[in-house]
Amino acid sequence: MGKQRNQFFKMGLLVVSLFVLDACSSTSEMEDESAATQSAASSNSGSSSSGAGSSNQLTQEQIRAQNALRQTVFYFDFDVAEFQPSDRETLTYHARDLAANSGKRIRLEGHADERGTREYNLALGERRANGILNYFIVNGASRSQIEVVSYGEERPEQSGQSEQAYGRNRRVEIVAQ
Amino acid sequence: MKLRFFFSIIFVLAKTDAYAELSIQITQGVDNPIPIAVVPFSMDSGIVLSEDVAGIVRNDLEQVGEFRTLSLSNMISLPDEEQEVFYRDWRILAQDYLLVGKIDQEPGSQLVQVQYEFFDVNREIKLAGEVLTGSITQLRDIGHTISNVVFEQVTGVRGAFTSQLLYIVAEGAGPSTSLFKLEKSDYDGARPQVLLESGEPIMSPSWSPNGQDVAYVSFETGLPRIYIQNISSGQRRQITNYPNINSSPVWSPDGNKLAMVLSKDGSPDIYVQDLVSNQLIKVTDHPAIDTEPSWTPDGDYIVFMSDRTGQPQIYQIALGANSYDVERLTYDCFQCAKARFLPDGVNLVHVRRETRQALYKIAILNIETLRVITLTDTSLDESPSLAPNGSMIIYATKFNGKGVLDAVSIDGRVKFRLPSTQGDVREPSWSPFLN
Hints:
The structure holds 2 protein chains of 2 kinds. By secondary structure, chain A is α+β, with helices and mostly antiparallel strands.
């Protein structure tokens, strides 16, 4: 229990430092990444640090978390309600972030492509969002932090009848509250 | 008080003008339509009306596909009442039926009198005739009323020309959708009127059986919730506020209950809410998706879609039965969804995807003979809704990448389209008889 609390505390520090870094960084993602790489290199070359977040030097793990939290849209295969295995790691960072910040509230917005009936798509969007909700809870988030809403096919990310558009529309978005 | 009323009228009128109307386009008719002559209705000189009543009747009859009207240039006489009718004039032109009429308006009055007479040319008899009185803003209603009489005299089936449609319009399709509107129009798309508009989605409009109220889903609070709105007064109330999905409201045939879908217990299940006692009954209980409820014509069963076998199929359950006591109705399709019985209680209108590769079509399954008639050949067809006389189905489809409404006769022979000039049109709901 004490160990867990300590981890939460570290997480909190980490997030604070991420926030500071975020605030300083430019808006270009490319530049962000190069800046992050540099800071990772300096962190590695430096002497063993006294603790996470004690300086603006970030570990590779912290950078990974930072980048993961920046991804808020997750795409799904046709007729599939489970998130893609390649998103598992990113979603784990989101779950830990929620676990470490009990005051944080998010909305999981589920969406479907336009094929199939509207009411079924509304249910499919919810099924997708619930898959991520359950994964977050298993990984330490609290149910009360998360609101789930499905828009079905009503709010596409991209219009049109192409496979490409459909792929963009089958998604779950994490929206900070 | 009076002033406020005046302003609200202005507001509604301005709106109606600003929104582009849907207009009919016949895409497929029958092989041997019934020939009928609709003579232009005569008027005293000096009367100027905004609508051509005979023209409205002509359009009505043409667009249901079963009639072919005689063109004006082929008419050899223009009678406006019985004593001017010479049957041989119309037999020479190979017409089976003849409609004539005249319009009177008292000087300075807002009231018009429309007299019409309808004849069987071959039997040389008058089949119907009367004088209809109404305000000059009701000329379309008068025209549609005459079409109802003609249609019923010839086919024996009650006409649905005075019925109306509800549908959803999304403006600025796709990610830029800025406005969702619930609209009501005549059956032919004329006189559209906005009942509700919102920056958040509106879904699933459903007429009450008496035609006075509409139930729908609105995301206006950020969450899908069910509302009931009185169509003439605009007064509305929120019916549900359960966690998660609240959707698919459908009125029972007696108008006292609302079937709906709630996922408050984890997965979407079918519920029935009593609108008088507010009692909520859970009808289905399954971890898979159960949705799209509809009532059998006798109100004893709920038909619904479930993907409990992996893909959407259609089931029914008796009200009051155990939740596991469901009867599966479809087996022969990859996906079957959004089903509703015709008034005969045997033929089931539904959305069908025959195989994994097939398109979504509107089809009718006879649950006794298991015969399937596929009615449509467009793509992404959905949301079928039946005309009150059971003769046609209106549904949503895509044309040139845009949401449009198409109608098809239940035998598949006649098709027409209501193209919209603005926005994506979807989820049509055909009214019950309103007169």
